[in-house]
Amino acid sequence: MLQTLPRRAVVALLALSVFFPIGLVLYQSILSGPFFMPASLSLESYAFIFDDPDFWLAGKNTLAVAFGMGAIAIPLGAVLAFIMVRTDLPGRRWLETPIMIPVFVSPVVLGFGYVVALGPVGFFSVWFQEIFGSVPWNIYSLTSIIIIAGLTHVPHVYLYSSSALRNLGSDVEEAARLSGASPFRVARDVSIPMVSPALLYVGVLVFFLGFEIFGLPLILGDPEGHLVLTTYLYKLTNKLGTPSYHLMAAVATCIIAVTFPLVLLQRVLLKSAQRFVAMKGKSARQRPLMLGPWKWLALALILAWLFVTVIVPVAGIALRSVVSSWGQGIHLLDVLTLDHFRAVFEEDTMIRSIINSILIGTLGGALAVGGYLAIGLATHRQNDGITRFVDYVILTPRAVPGLMAGLAVFWVFLFVPFLSPARSTLFSVWFAYTIVWLAYGMRLIQSALMQVGPELEEAGRLVGASRARVSRDITVPLIRNGLLGAWLLVFMIFEREYSTGVYLLSPGTEVIGAQIVSLWASGAVDVVAALSLINMALVGIGLAIALRFGVKLHD
Amino acid sequence: MTDKTILAVDNLALAYGDNPILKGVSMHLNRGEVVSLLGPSGSGKTTLLRAVAGLEQPHAGSVIIAGRAIYDAAANIDIPAEKRDLGLVFQSYALWPHKTVFDNVAYPLVLRKVAKNEIVQRVHAALKNLGLDHLAERYPHQLSGGQQQRVSIARALVYNPPVILLDEPLSNLDAKMREEARAWLRNLIVELQLSALVVTHDQSEAMAMSDRILLLNGGVIEQQGTPTEMYAQPQTFFVADFMGSNNIMKGRIGDIKGGEARIDLDNGLSVWGLRRTNAAIGHEATAVIRVEQLHLADGPGHNRAEVDLATSMFLGDRYEYVFHAGGDLLRAWGKRHEAAGKRWLELPPDALWIF
Amino acid sequence: MNIERRRFQRGLLAGLALAALHSTFTPAHAQTGSDLVAAAQKEGKLVIYGVTDNEQANHLIREFRTMYPAISVEYSNMSTTELYNRFISETAAGSSADVTWSSSMDLQIKLVNDGYAQPHKSAETAKLPEWANWKNEAFGTTYEPIGFVYNKRLIPANDVPQTHADFIKLLNTQTEKFKGKVNTYDPEKSGVGFMLVTQDKQVNAAGFTDLQKALGAVQVKVQASTGTMMERIASGENLIGYNLNAAYALTRAQKDPSIGIVLPKDYTLVLSRVMFIAKKAKNPNAAKLWLDFVLSKKGQEIIASKADLYAIRPDVEGDTTASGLKKQLGDALRPVAINTGLLTYLDQAKRLDFLKQWNSTVKGK
Predict the structure, then answer these.
(1) Contact A521 C224 (CB under 8 A)
(2) Which residue of A has its CA nearest to B112?
(3) How many residue contacts between A and C have a Cβ separation below 8 Å?
(4) Nearest CB to A243: which of C84, C93, C235?
(5) Cβ within 8 Å, pair C93-A414
(6) What phi-psi label fits residue A436: left (phi over 0), alpha (psi between -120 and 50 degrees) or beta?
(7) Chain B contact for A461 (CB, 8 A cutoff)
(8) How many Cα neighbours within 13 Å face the side chain of B26?
(9) Chain B contacts of A4, Cβ < 8 Å?
(10) Does the global pTM surpass 0.90?
């Protein structure tokens, strides 16, 4: 709780930070050229992209990815949640962390890992071919992109459905079991339908993430030319020879036109899902469902999924980073080398990007959490117009693809006079990251704030503390652990981020994620592998610390 | 309103959106007096307390404490909670888990910029008053429920607020402790000569603890008075029903004689009682009589009826008899076990209200 | 009116400057002379945007820094389009890099043509071949041949094509073997790739259709960068790549024995990294000093020997120099001239037409 003036200031700053860059994108989309050059208002950019068959193709692929991802991730995630939450699967505790890992691995890193592991002559493909004679998969096909995207989004579905399942009494399942249903039938006929509001919510979420997916199609879609809207946007720069900001902005606007309503829909669905859970009230003590012999099948399934989504790509990258060459007819032992790491550590930019990545995760993460906290406190327990407004502001950046958000922030820092000195500093990247992950961060902060009993704050008010004093002396100290957790999660998300920094890359603002995208474009694969591994190591350290402090990876 | 009045609420109205919670409530609290706000859930009693505290936002009326308007819709006065100088003991105690007992109690004084050594002295005095002196360095989670409540009270008293507000102070204690705590709390209030406004949903708690009771129903005050008035002279059916354990029977007015009336009950009985309704002869009415007022009689007489005793239940300090009277079950208390069978039952006319 | 006057002033200034240069023309010393060095050192800083990898560019920068320790160099490595975008938007916002250095020759010429460059003339610029100096504003700095890159382990020596015709024949005769195993630049994603195929079309108009058909028949894989193409060839995922920069391939071949390079004997396209000094450069003197250094004999030797690029200056000797290539290939070398001819395909309609035609024959779309 803040006093009125800082509250207004916080909200105004927030609204400006969110709407100015987005407004710039929308404005740019209706100009005939870059907004900073003589350009007239026109819809020619829309005319161009609507006339471009590639746009429609990309749109079609995007829909296929979004739907396909849902079709894979939702059932698998729901079943995974059921197994993890409601059954006596052996090693459940132990599995809780690994199944969240895909969320924290950068998709570019993942995509790259798949190329070296499962590509036509990838490490695994070659072994597979030696044993079975041929390789049945093609990693560059749209189907593969969809499957990988689907498998890597299983944790998202798991997250939401597991928390819904936790709120469900086990009596309904036991009743089904006694009526003669197998554990699988219990899941299919009773438990999962009962959490359908949560599934609907996460369905929209996954669909919407599918719409903004960039890293995987960037890397896997390249060789066969499978475009999705975000990669189409990225590629548009080249298509006309001269860069075309207005076209990019028009594509971004089209994406936003789809994602923004979805974000709003999500909000509505979340509310109804919460009501659904609240209606049932507190459930009876839960007893895990006995799986019997099924448990080995369930365990095998989960391990197989983890193998495909985590171990295969990560092992691929790890291997690629220590060999100078790979592929058919190469003995890996002959080509072992640490040159790539040496190359990384000899290069100032690379070292800077590693240092910057650490800085943006630690210091930047802390500052971002501080910012989120200020917004959270400004709206905490104040159910008024400003709070509702902030609710929507927070969700808005979610609808903008990170790539475009980064570009918009670049513009802002370029043309807002007092900001321009900060453009080639890490501050601009931090600003972009903080805006892009606003919704995520705010959810962490708000759920931490919700844990504080309102009477603890009211008691503070009653004994004579102002709103600001209550925030300082009571609310914030009480959510210390929540803040620490938010900081670690934001750290991992910031380490993982790649697309937002692409257009902000300059000396001083290098971060590993954007550097990988840029290096990938220039084809420096050796260094990409080494950097990817370093990136994963950073995320891994964050994860280890998070677990050490008992931070829950989901709510 | 006199100079004895420490808290005066006038015509206070409050709504959540379109849903009115308080529909114009007026009340006052005198110095050294304990007033209970009693009512079922949803009656607005807690809202009224919170509105006085400044935690809810009314839209009309006024609240005056010790002559100072802390809320006045007409004059556009709305002092924020922290400037109202009230003490509130929360239902959940609301002790700050990250502060020790000492720090919890000291915090209001820190906010008031009291000198350090004075804080120590005053906190220890407050804790001593409540028998908590030895627990000062503990954290709230290391205390029992009763101890937590005392800390919460100490925190609310340490800065000598003119009025102390208590929100369901006993509801978080288990049944046995509740009665002891009730006595202890009443004693404390009297001893320290506090002016207290207490919210409770339990009528026996209200009667035991307070000098006056305000019974709220649907956002308005249904009736107010001393505990004995409230118990013995309910003006409405709601009050009669809420304040005690009753036998309630439906019927029609059969005859009216001044302040008394005869009601012909649907269960076949016909009894005289005190008339508390304007309904005319032949109209529907309800008869209410406290369970403890019904008693067994040795034979027929005025306001007596022969009914079927179905069973006797042993309650420890007494027996409860269950009678069949037509479609109604009637309950009465007695000292002895009675065998089932036909019995004469007396419903004293001065203890029976017809609404 | 205002603009007219400014233009006039600009012309006048340029004229004066030229006159001044001519009048004090004493080769090699006038421009790298103490005046320029002093002015540059006073600026103390130089900002370069380039597409050359840091690792390679650093060889030049390091030497430059030892020569002029007072001038700090800030080098940003980015893609060709990023460079273009960033340069124009930053210029619009005030000022951008002092020097840009890009292999996307057409975009560089477009910037120069749009008035983003300032002229510079010195003893070093005079050493450049005529085709590599456009109006003393845009300068070619390297001489990078374009060729075929193949996997030595998987293509027998006899099959390795030596000319474009050989290449087409190889694909047409061993179509099954090469299906899905040939790669080249995606002209839609790579500006350089686009430029190279359009040059192919100009240089070899007769064979161009056959080339496209052959690439289409083996379902050529298109990539956005040389690095990815080479990675795929080295691993055996692809067998041969068309229109790869031999300078990059050479670097990789030194570390990786499976990489083989052919410079076609019928004609070999040659790219030159174009450098120009920004009109709004904050450090124009340092920029001039740098440009002269890159074109100097010392700079060119570094380019040839350490930076794994090819030197353009005719008086620099060695395998990886223009003169070395001339000995090897003679008249087959086809350097892409730095002039407004490069702008042809920046015309939106022409460009999209070409891409459409390319997609329909090569990708079968």
Answers:
(1) yes
(2) A464
(3) 144
(4) C84
(5) yes
(6) alpha
(7) yes
(8) 4
(9) none
(10) no
Q: Supply the DSSP symbol for A188.
A: I
Q: Are strands B19-30 and B212-217 parallel, antiparallel or unpaired?
A: unpaired
User: Best of A226, A238, A502 to disrupt the C interface by mutation (most C CBs within 10 Å)?
Assistant: A238
Largest separation between any pair of C-alpha atoms in chain B: 76
The helix or strand, by DSSP H or E, that contains position A397, with its residue range, turns out to be none
ipTM of this model?
Answer: 0.80
**Contact in structure between A325 and C256 (CB atoms under 8 Å):** yes
> Pairing relation of β-strands B304-314 and B341-346?
antiparallel
Contact residues on chain C for A340, CB-CB shorter than 8 A: none
Q: Which amino acid is at B95?
A: L
Tell me which residues of chain A, numbers 319 to 338, contact chain C at a CB-CB cutoff of 8 Å: 324-330
At residue A119's C-alpha, the angle toward residues A117 and A123, to 5°, is 35
Per-residue model confidence as pLDDT tens for chain A (555 residues):
345 568 888 999 999 999 999 999 999 999 888 888 777 888 888 998 898 888 999 999 999 999 999 999 999 998 888 888 888 888 887 888 888 888 888 888 888 889 888 888 788 888 888 888 888 888 889 999 999 999 999 988 888 888 778 777 667 777 777 776 777 777 777 777 778 888 888 888 888 888 888 889 988 887 777 889 998 888 787 777 776 788 889 999 999 998 888 888 888 887 766 655 443 434 445 667 777 778 888 889 899 999 989 899 888 888 888 887 777 667 777 778 888 888 888 877 889 899 999 999 999 999 999 999 999 998 888 778 888 888 888 888 888 888 888 889 988 888 888 888 888 789 999 999 999 999 889 988 988 888 888 889 999 998 889 888 898 899 999 998 889 889 988 998 899 888 888 888 877 788 998 888 888 777 777 888 899 899 988 888 888 888 787 776 654
Q: Report CB contact under 8 Å: A343, C223.
A: no
Q: A-contacting residues of B 114-133, CB under 8 Å?
A: none
Q: Please, which residues 29-58 of chain A have a Cβ atom closer than 8 Å to chain C?
A: 34, 36-37
Out of A425-434, B90-99, B170-179, C274-283, pick the least confident: B170-179
Bridge partners of residue C184, in order along the sequence: C222, C242
Helix ranges, A290-416 (H)? 294-306, 312-320, 339-346, 348-379, 385-395, 402-415
With 0-12 / 13-18 / 19 or more C-beta atoms within 10 angstroms meaning exposed / middle / buried, residue C272 is buried
Instruction: Give strand pairing partners of B143.
Output: none
Q: Which residue of A has its CA nearest to B104?
A: A460
Q: Is B241 exposed, middle or buried (0-12, 13-18, 19+ CB in 10 A)?
A: middle
Q: Does A349 touch chain C (CB under 8 A)?
A: yes
A388 touches B: beta carbon within 8 Å: no
**Measured between alpha carbons, how far is A451 from B252 in angstroms, rounded to an integer?**
55
Q: What is each CA distance from A74 to A89, A203, B28, in whole angstroms?
A: 20, 7, 60
Q: Do C227 and A524 touch (CB under 8 A)?
A: yes
Dmax over CA atoms of chain A, in Å, equals 79
User: Rounded to an integer, what distance in angstroms lies between the CA atom of residue B78 and that of residue B20?
Assistant: 20
- Give the CA radius of gyration of chain C: 21
* Cβ-based contacts of A462 with chain B (< 8 Å): 53-55, 81-82, 84, 86-88, 156
Give residues 514 to 543 of A whose Cβ lies within 8 Å of B. none
Q: Does A237 touch chain C (CB under 8 A)?
A: yes
Residue corresponding to tokens 């990225």: A234
- Give all chains having 3 or more CB-to-CB distances under 8 Å with chain C: A
For C335, phi then psi, to 5°, come to: -65, 140
**DSSP assignments along A492-549, one per residue:** HHHHH--STTGGG-STT---HHHHHHHHHHHT-HHHHHHHHHHHHHHHHHHHHHHHHT
Using a CB-CB cut-off of 8 Å, the residues of chain A touching B84 are: 462
